[in-house]
Amino acid sequence: MDEIRRLKELVDGSDNIVFFGGAGVSTESGIPDFRSTDGLYHQEYDYPPETILSHTFFMQNTKEFYRFYKNKMLCLDAKPNAAHKKLAQLEAAGKLKAVITQNIDGLHQKAGSREVLELHGSVLRNYCMRCGTFYDAEYMLRAEGVPCCEKCGEIIKPDVVLYEEGLNNETLTKAIRYIANADVLIIGGTSLVVYPAAGLIDYYRGNKLVVVNKSVTPQDKYADLVVPGKIGEIFSQL
Ligand code: NAD
Fold first, then answer.
1. Is 34's C-beta closer than 6 angstroms to any atom of ligand 1?
2. Residue 44: is its pLDDT beyond 80?
3. Can you give the three-state secondary structure of 220-238, one letter per residue?
4. Residue 235: what are its φ and ψ, rounded to 5°?
5. Which of 28, 46, 81, 100 has the fewest CB atoms within 10 Å of its CB?
6. Residue range 12-26: average pLDDT?
7. CA 16/CA 75 separation, integer angstroms
8. In what order do the strands lie in the sheet with 116-118?
9. Residue 37 has what pLDDT?
10. Phi, psi of 174 (to 5 degrees)
11. 3-state secondary structure of 53
């Protein structure tokens, strides 16, 4: 496919690539995204994911939040796919500066990526809401019902940015800096509808904006290159 050849040329010719991704990067690892037809918006739940994953819902319906969260968001057996692995390789080769991700699954780090900016946090970190004690994801999965602190009994909250919550300022500032200075910006596996994360790509000033996505995105019309398809399959050909 011509688009993949062109993407390979751009990647080969740059040592300042930045990747901005979302849930579509992990679907080939078996983690459902939100908006694909087999994504979480199309499954039977009493509330849409955006409602369940909101701060208000967490505070008011903690038990129901955790029922969904443990079932759908804690995918601890998932393994990095070809996209995660290629990004880690490109970083190790000194070509890619950072992965900026909306994902909370930790798969980029599992693949070996080091500079990963997690805009929405991570399911791998969890803290007691009162005393701040750290708990890992296995503890959260094992806990019956609502996970509570062993020390003080308070509810534990995942270090995940829920809807209605703000993004970490330091992470945002770093992400903006990487994007503003990038030579090649590759956007992949994201519907680009979740703000403020999606707005970060507006800081890109270069002329090598690439979108790799299974479906059409609002950025396609501004992109210098659109590579339609599955990101793992595409990246394994780079
Ligand atoms: P989204 O569900 O809104 O969109 C996913 C996009 O990826 C869609 O456009 C879809 O067509 C595309 N896609 C799916 N599989 C693909 C593949 N194999 N190759 C290329 N493209 C593919 O996801 P989003 O834009 O990241 O926004 C959803 C929010 O939900 C984010 O904030 C994210 O934090 C969260 N989320 C995270 C995970 C995770 O950590 N793995 C999973 C679900 C949702």
1. yes
2. no
3. HHHCCEEEECCHHHHHCCC
4. -65, -25
5. 46
6. 97
7. 32
8. 116-118, 96-101, 17-21, 184-188, 209-213, 225-228
9. 55
10. -65, -45
11. coil
Distance 25 CA to ligand 1 centre (A): 7
84 is catalytic: no
- 110 Cα–ligand 1 center, Å: 18
AA identity, residue 16: N
Q: Angle 182-187-188 (CA atoms, 0-180°, nearest 5)? A: 145
Q: % helix / strand / coil in the chain, to the nearest 5?
A: 40, 20, 40
- The residue behind tokens 């499954």 is 43
Residue written as tokens 């819902």?
Answer: 57
Ligand 1 touching residue 36 (CB < 6 A)? yes
Look at residue 213 and give its three-state secondary structure. Answer: strand
Q: Where are the alpha helices (DSSP H) in the chain?
A: 2-12, 49-52, 55-60, 62-68, 82-92, 107-111, 137-142, 169-181, 231-235
Q: Using DSSP, how many helices (H) and how many strands (E) does the chain show?
A: 9, 9
Amino acid present at 66: Y
Residue 221 — φ and ψ, nearest 5°? -70, -20
Q: Token pair of 16, please?
A: 């300042």
Domains within the chain, CATH numbers bracketed: 1-31+80-120+166-238 (3.40.50.1220)
List pLDDT tens digits, range 183-224. 999 999 999 988 888 899 999 999 999 999 999 999 999 999
| Distance from the alpha carbon of residue 31 to the mean position of ligand 1, in angstroms | 9
